[in-house]
Fold this protein.
Amino acid sequence: MSLRSRLLLSLVAILAMVALAGTVSGLIVASRDRDNTRLRDLTSARRHVDELTTTYTDQQNSIVAYLVAPQRFLLQPYEDGIPASERQVRTLRAELAPYPPLRKDLDVVAADASVLRRSAADPAIRLLQAGQSRRAVLTILDTKVRDRFDHLRSTLRSLARGVDREARAADARRNHANNWLYVTLIVTAVAVVIGLVVAAILIGRWTTRPISQIATAVRSVRQGALDTRVPAVGPPDLAALGDDVDQMRARIIRELSETNRAREAIEQNATVVLTLRRLLEAEPAALPDGWRVAATLRPTEGMVAGDSYDVATLPDGRLSLVVIDIAGHGAVSAVAALRCQELLRAGLADGRGPGEVLGWLHEQMRDPGVELFFSAFVATIDPTTGRCTYANAGHPSPLLAHAGDVVELDRTGPIVGPLVTDWKSAEVTIAAGDTLAVYTDGLTDPRNTRNGDDALGYLSTMLRATERFDAETLVARSIEELEAHAQGRPRDDVTLVVLSRNEPTGGASR
């Protein structure tokens, strides 16, 4: 049974007990009120019986006095007593209606009074008024009137005793009802107190104790003791709550364990990720005198990107420049970019030209189960003559600043993908004072800027005044322009490599 049902049942039991006690008390009070009403009526009837007795006594005295001394005024109490006694008898009949025996005694009293008047009092008065001798009248008085009055008083005494008896019985019943009412109230109060005590004990057992146990376990878990089991105790709903909290604790333990394993994995792989980033952003080797290079790579996610660049010196003294943009982001694309970068460097070192090395790379990277797409710009440069042989595999056109003008190096083939194709090589000369800027499409991606602005136009403007800016300045200001127009986090990786040729001054430079 649920906690709510138990509490409702306890409340209903207490209310039912109170209602029963109230009903019994109400019945007792109603009975007491009835007895009070009867006692009041009987008290009034007893007073009327006394008044009726007084009236009959006055009539007797009036008759006796008149028969002894026939004076008209002496008969007046007798005559006035007749309607008075009739009124009193009617009143007593109404008051004694619930008591048939007393009503019967009253009828006997009324009948005796009527017989007394008809057979004794009235005949004696008429004889005396008709002139009969006083002796004859007194004889009637002694033989009839006094006997009738004595019988009438006896009947009245019997009626009075009956009324007194009924009054005592009503008073006893009233007192008995009062006693029962007191007992009922005391028993009800004791029962309510006991019920409340029992309810308090049960509520403590049903709620306080289980909640305390659950709360103690939860506090222990909150303080770090995750192995503390939250008990499922108490009524079903509280037990379900404890079970839910314990399942949440178990889930926290599982998720914490998974988090720790993930953290450990991150810690284990952090060195690999940092190493991979360094390889993708390899520091250019020392360049011949008059050549400078500056580069940057901004991943869109995490620490590594699908972009890669490499500037190196080949065994025959030529410079190699490689920029790759793998379709995708993150560590998987970064590994693919690094592999392509290393294969391209190895292929160029073996003497393959830029277009040829792209075909060779395509053969090396072919995997029936993997579809890899990437764009690439590959170039070899003779540092002495400035002759630049390049291949552009679907890559954004690099910009070559020459004599105040900017030339785009168009594509020489499609992007590298699953389909077999060829890439041609093209040539251009990088003269003293020229600057070559190679970038990935993150620099021009409209998702990385507001209002369609991009850093390419700014870079082109600076390239036209290349004598005023070195390679590092061109890279730094182009990235600043991109960030100035950015709308939040970049949506694509950004790579920019700037290679410039100055007049030789002796020694090597970056």
